[in-house]
Amino acid sequence: MGKFLRIVAIISMGLTAVQTLLGAIGSVCISWFPEKYESLVVVAPYKSVYQIATVFTFVAAFIGIAATVALVRGKSWAYRTALGALLLGIATAGTKMYFSNMLRGSTAPTNMRFYLTIFTLIVFLLLRIPGVWEKAGLTRPGKDGSSSAAAGTAMLLGGLLSLTIPIWAGPSHIMDGYNLVLVLKIPLLLGGGALALIGIGLLTRAVLKKTSAPRVYQMTGWRRRSHRSRQVGEFSR
After folding, report:
1. Rounded to an integer, what distance in angstroms lies between the CA atom of residue 219 and that of residue 49?
2. Of 38, 88, 153, 196, which has fewest CB within 10 angstroms of its CB?
């Protein structure tokens, strides 16, 4: 149970960090340039609120990325840092959802980030259940390749999230007949593709490490038995 939650925690934290970063990038237009788009003019009087929320969303994303790396490496400060990033992410997403619903009558796509962050927070709180924390081993790096597999899965899913953002975020970013997501098409494709490739590499490494471990163990055991046999033979002489 603990090991499973560790893997889920790393994957969900990585996904949440990527989603938070994408949310921050996507909020730049509505936070600083609402006057440029007729459908966003209503936001203009409150753009200072959006600007503050967007800045702290970037902060939450970068802290979340650092926390994900620390979780993979088993750093002692990773759990507390992850909780801080999640709580900050929930606060910024909640603020944007409140004002977006009040001004535009819609909370998409920030609501997706909000619910994902809530889910990740629940996973991290479950890790503190007595008995689970010790088995999860978040304060020590995984030795069986599980951490690399979790990190690889998180990066692969994060890459796919970036590559498909025009599909799931496009409908809520159509301003005056134009999909604003396409403005960042090249960076999203490059960044998402890089994340996906690195994720595949980490997953491949984890699989190879796991499959080669029994062979190494068998070779080590054979060498030990061979060494003992030679010692017995020399002693009998």
Report:
1. 63
2. 38
- Do 55 and 77 meet the contact criterion of CB atoms below 8 Å apart? no
Q: Which residues pair with 126 in a beta bridge?
A: none
pLDDT at 230: 56
HSE, side-chain direction, 13 A CA sphere, residue 206? 19
| 13 vs 68: CA distance, rounded Å | 6
State how far Cα 198 lies from the chain centre: 14
> What is the 3 state secondary structure string of 1-45?
CHHHHHHHHHHHHHHHHHHHHHHHHHCHHHHHCHHHCHHHHHHHH
Total domains, the chain: 1
Tokens of 225: 């038995």
Distance from C-alpha of 195 to C-alpha of 158, rounded to nearest angstrom: 7
Q: Which pair of structure tokens corresponds to residue 8?
A: 């889920």
In tens, the pLDDT along 91-118 reads 999 999 999 999 888 888 889 999 999 9
Give yes or no for residue 146 having a pLDDT over 80.
no
**DSSP E strand stretches across the chain:** 174-175, 178-179
**180: its two tokens:** 């604003």
